[in-house]
Write a sequence for this structure.
């Protein structure tokens, strides 16, 4: 699965129980890392052997701080959580829109802040944002705003937290359990529509993003970057 050697490193993945984050957990564990996966739900979660599972809610600053107090020293942090924020400004009041920002922006912010004092100096932080930051589509102003804010947060922190490296991945549509609640025909239509529109000719898989995260953790010359893993959606 992986050509990397992460033996002796500790990788923490928030959102590590499903989809993209889970694929990062699997790749990092296969590369020999000690891995901690964290999410709100820890019941009935099966992860690879040697992966520790912790509970955290990114919507709560105290929950995030408590997670980092429990897990101790670590080398790499990957943040891959938060619901997709759908709805136009006509549809969402600020009260309805704010929880999306609370989880995926302020939750990431709290995690980066908690990590900053604890992460090893040759470590890295990877924020999983989203292509919606720069590729606009109807009904996604909050998704665009949150992911654009994360790209700026990542770049700015690459300066402030150096030598710790900070990068952002902007995935396009990735087939994950995030869409499990959709009617199957609608879900498949969404994936097929994406495949038909992007140069790569397919929707993404969690491992497409996980291999990008492995690269960003491993390559010590890459920081302050936004890596598009989207099948080419930004060029159409
Ligand atoms: N899939 C896509 O098409 C796509 C495209 C662009 C960007 N992204 C971004 O990629 C990231 C991962 O998406 P995914 O598709 O892999 O989603 P997913 O399969 O639904 O997994 C989400 C993970 O985040 C955890 N999570 C959700 N809310 C949380 C919270 N408040 N605190 C802590 N953990 C939380 C979930 O576990 P619990 O529910 O148990 O907490 C789960 O482990 C998200 O930021 C998403 O916006 C996804």
């Amino acid at each position: 699965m992986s050509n990397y050697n992460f033996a002796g490193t500790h990788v923490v993945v928030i959102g590590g129980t499903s989809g993209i984050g889970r694929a990062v957990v699997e790749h990092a564990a296969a590369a020999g890392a000690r891995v901690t996966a964290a999410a709100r739900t820890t019941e009935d979660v099966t992860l690879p052997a040697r992966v520790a599972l912790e509970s955290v809610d990114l919507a709560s600053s105290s929950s995030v701080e408590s997670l980092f107090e429990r897990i101790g020293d670590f080398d790499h942090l990957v943040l891959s959580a938060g619901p997709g924020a759908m709805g136009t400004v006509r549809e969402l009041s600020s009260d309805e829109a704010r929880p999306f920002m609370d989880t995926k922006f302020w939750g990431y912010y709290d995690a980066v802040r908690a990590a900053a004092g604890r992460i090893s100096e040759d470590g890295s932080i990877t924020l999983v944002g989203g292509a919606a930051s720069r590729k606009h589509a109807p009904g996604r102003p909050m998704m665009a705003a949150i992911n654009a804010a994360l790209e700026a947060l990542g770049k700015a922190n690459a300066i402030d937290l150096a030598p710790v490296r900070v990068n952002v991945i902007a995935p396009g549509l990735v087939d994950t359990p995030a869409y499990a609640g959709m009617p199957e025909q609608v879900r498949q239509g969404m994936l097929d529509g994406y495949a038909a529109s992007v140069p790569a000719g397919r929707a993404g898989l969690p491992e497409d993003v996980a291999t990008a995260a492995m690269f960003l953790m491993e390559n010590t010359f890459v920081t302050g970057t936004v890596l598009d893993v989207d099948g080419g959606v930004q060029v159409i």
The chain has one domain: 10-227. Residues 94-116 form the longest helix (23 residues). The CA atoms of residues 40 and 203 lie 27 Å apart.
